[in-house]
Amino acid sequence: MNTYETIALIGVFIFIFFLIFKNRKSAQKEINNLNEIEYLGTSTMTFDDVAGNYEAKASLMELVDFIKNPEKYSRFNARMPKGILLYGAPGTGKTLMAKALAGEAGVPFYAVSGSDFVQVYAGLGAGRIRNLFKKAKKSGKSVIFIDEIDAIGKKRMAGNLRGSDESDRTLNALLTEMSGFAEDSGTVVVAATNRIDTLDRALLRPGRFDRQIEIMLPDRNARKDILGHYLNKRNAEEVNLDEIADLTIYFSGAMIENLINEAAIMAVRENSDKIKEEHIKSAYLEILAGREKNNYENKLQKTITSYHEAGHAFVSKYLLPENKIIRISVIPTSKGAGGYTLSTPGQEIMTKKNIKKHLSVLMAGRVAEEVFFGKENITAGAQNDIEKATSLAIDYITKYAMDGSTFINYEILSDKLRIPLTSVEASVKKLTEEIYESVVEIIEKNKDSVAIIAKTLLAKEVINQEELDKLLSKDH
Length: 476
Ligand code: ADP
Ligand code: ZN
What we know:
Blueprint: H1 3-37, E1 39-42, H2 54-68, H3 70-74, E2 83-87, H4 94-105, E3 108-113, H5 124-138, E4 142-147, H6 165-180, E5 187-193, E6 211-214, H7 220-233, H8 241-247, H9 253-269, H10 277-289, H11 299-319, E7 325-329, E8 340-343, H12 352-373, H13 383-398, H14 410-417, H15 422-445, H16 447-460, E9 462-464, H17 465-475
Parallel strand pairs: 2-5, 2-6, 3-4, 4-5
Antiparallel strand pairs: 1-3, 7-8, 7-9
Bound molecules: adenosine-5'-diphosphate and zinc ion (ZN).
Zinc ion binds near residues 308, 312, 382 and 385.
């Protein structure tokens, strides 16, 4: 072999080495990236940081003792759950609860999200699961948290439509690992999902996620607790918690936290020394309706919008007097609305009668435009109302079976019989037309009241709850 050949050979070796190395490096990089997502630490959260959901908390508190003293339970052969599934709407504090469990038990908290396992290289998902459990085992006791478990544990569809081998492998690895660790190891796996209905049944079997706990939107008391919790943490003056708790019906804990945060930002913006009630209320309006922008340039548009909003407000007062109208505005907002009528959603039961009333309120804006300005002058401002009314009317017919004397869920019907839902269209049309006509009648009959609201809006741009009541009582 001469020098030239030697050099060439070394060159080839270096090249091959480089290729192998490069491949290994990128694979290694991928694994590193994935490992970064895992978070290891001791949680300092406690159950005091979680407001509301008292039963769920009690159920988890029981597990604290189990994690701390697993021998106590194994002595009696008491089988404690290995897996706990927390399910419920986003932002209700599922992650928070899992952290609090780890915090109270004083053990490390490992967190991954099911969505991180989607579309990773073949075999990596399963590898990561094994890796996660290996790490957790090393630290002895721990809480392993898997958020968005539905991403790896989706129900297998009939006819094998699902077909992702990779998520199958990941799911199987998870189930194997879960059955592999000893019950008295002081490790629990907590998973969370917003959609328990889509989960593979295999996940819910005994020895897996056999304890399922629903985490609900906070009720009024819990909302007060959450509000108090986040206001105390910040610099706030005394506020009427009852009132804000009423306003925030259907808010999740995360939404309440965001509300108080926005209020704090407003207080800073205004150089205020404390967060005040008015900051919370402005933040509330901004979150629900969007930030109010510049005024209308076009007088006619503003006038029509005033009548549109007056229509909503009047019909709402007329048909659903128990609902509070907090504010009517004809100042365009950052969310693209030309104006809005904001009412606290009532807690009336969804009877057939009440759903029709809601549909009427949704239509009332457009109806007022038509009654006062003529059929040819209706505007696109009703777009959002039309969207909402359409889906409510479809639910009325297809899901709640409130039309005529059918007792049919049309979605299931069309799915099982594989037929299109053409008959529903006619029913939806008929229902909405009938209600529309009845709203025209209401507004025609009460033209004066609607006009007073509209004119006041045009002049003042904003009407609040008391002003509206005054306007309407004077009128009667
Ligand atoms: P989820 O996991 O259910 O989507 P998170 O636990 O991530 O919800 O909640 C997000 C944030 O919302 C929390 O960090 C906390 O600030 C707030 N939050 C939600 N629910 C509650 C609650 N019940 N008590 C106190 N804060 C809450
Ligand atoms: Zn409208």
